[in-house]
Amino acid sequence: MKNRVFNRHAESGFSLIELIVVMGIIGILLSAATINFNQWMRKNRVETQVRKMVTDLSELRVMAFTTKQRHSFVINQSSYAFRSYSSEDEDKCSGGTAVPGRTAYVNFKLKKLSGSYYSGACGDTIEINTRGILSGSLGNTVVFEYSDASPVVDCVKIHVLRINPGKFDGSVCNDN
Q1: Helix, strand and coil percent figures for the chain, each rounded to 5
Q2: What angle do CA 99, 102, 104 make, to 5 degrees?
Q3: DSSP code for 36
Q4: Do 83 and 71 form a contact (C-beta atoms < 8 A)?
Q5: Who wins on pLDDT, 36 or 84?
Q6: Residue 165, CB-side half-sphere exposure with 13 Å CA sphere
Q7: Where are the strands (E) in 36-139, listed by range?
Q8: Which residue, 138, 124, 77, 128, is CA-closest to 99?
Q9: Full set of structural domains in the chain with CATH
Q10: Mean pLDDT throughout 150-171?
């Protein structure tokens, strides 16, 4: 009887099959966590770029009325840039100079509310006068095109006196 008890304790431990099953369960849990982390990262990237665009537009408004100089915001499919004008007579399409260091590249395509992409053409330029009031394409909306994420904010609604982040629901940018 004593030998049986001693042998039982000597053989106790985990079998190879038990270890393989545990490793398989850990692998499944880690792969699920990695998928959720990647979705969270994509969601965070969209939200960060939307908020950066709102901040940049707000800074441009402040720059326009503090320097008493007309500025514009040119939106392209994958970037946006600031332009500065030396006089009120300068054409917003062909005139102005690029503000150094104020071109931002985005990881997502920028679309209009209609679904077409921004091209950087004259119609895709938002002008800000010396009082910080937006003109040009008023009521403009910039939608960030992404896949596999559900961010809280994914569009920018541009009004005459304010710029708000919002959530695009397929037809409008809700900026409440």
Answers
A1: 35, 30, 35
A2: 145
A3: H
A4: yes
A5: 84
A6: 16
A7: 71-75, 79-84, 97-105, 109-111, 125-128, 134-136
A8: 128
A9: 16-174 (3.55.40.10)
A10: 88
Where is 143: in which H helix or E strand? strand 140-145
Structure tokens at 58: 């707000």
Per the structure block, which two tokens stand in for 35?
């998928």
**Please, are residues 93 and 122 in contact by the beta-carbon 8 Å criterion?**
yes
List beta partners, residue 138. Answer: none
Q: Tokens for 98?
A: 């690029």
Alpha-carbon distance 17 to 28, whole Å? 17
Euclidean distance between CA atoms 36 and 41, whole angstroms? 9
Return the residue matching tokens 């009887």. 1
Write out pLDDT tens, residues 104-139.
899 889 988 888 888 888 778 888 888 888 876 546
Tokens 């990647």 found at: 38
Q: pLDDT, tens digit, for every residue of 64-104?
A: 989 999 998 888 889 998 988 888 788 877 888 888 888 88
How far, in Å, CA of 149 to CA of 43, rounded? 5
